[in-house]
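Side project, low priority. Logging it here so it doesn't get lost.
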Amino acid sequence: MKHFLSLEEQTSSDLEYILNLADKLKADRENASFKPLAGQTWTMIFSKSSTRTRVSFEVGVRELGGQVIFLAANDMQLGRGEPIKDTARVLGRMVHGAIIRTYGHQDVQDFASYSKIHTVNALTDHAHPCQIVADVMTIREKLGTIKGKTVTFIGDGACNVATSWIYGAMRFGFELRIAAPKEFFPAPYLIEQAGDCVKVTEDLDEAVRGSDVLYTDVWVSMGKEEESANRLELLKGYQIDSDLMGKANEGALLMHCLPAYRGKEVTEEVLEAHAQSIFDQAENRLHAQKAIMAWLVE
């Protein structure tokens, strides 16, 4: 039984296959004959609110021929303390796949193990693998390839998106730089695993020079609201503005997984100047996730 829980668990060849399929599905979106989820019902279990993730997965399941049931945590006995393994064993007898957006990564792993149905990680505190597949798809569209390129992640280098980018660098063959205050460096074991393909620094200018892509995310992720004041103070020197963009390679992309907080991690001016790429990136969540689900049921 195949699952898509994190990039670290996927092979480079499988990820390449998914990306190529995503390109095809995007180009052939009006072709209604590709229905690998026909006759299937998938469930979406979301403990965290969402715009892009929810809409892209709901549309994606339907475009692949399936039906979808959306369940917020409070709609289920999970909200009253039922163990995830019991929920998983029930749903595994009724639906064909599950898309889960929650806090603890172990919950997604346990669901996959006990449900014995295809399970997709739509975001946990540890990883956001579907986002990175859509991001790599976008970079390939804009720059031709990601191999040999330099991607610089700026801000909270210990967040789930940065963690998934680290595994992305290991799987896709590019240089990843992470510019962050020391308090927000990735876990040491991740840096050690990544080896030479990942560089971590507090020096923002050094990280940006020679970069093909600058990438940022919100400074206060869901579940971190109590740390808001401290995070904003520590990260205020890591804003992407026009001066910083000018230090990257000519034609460098700005990427943001959204939602964006203008005036914090990125200025209004810079975000709007790169809106085309950022919202192409958002659209590609749909195509990338359709490819992931199609790959799972092959």
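Brief comment: The first strand starts at residue 41 and ends at 46.
Revisit when time allows.
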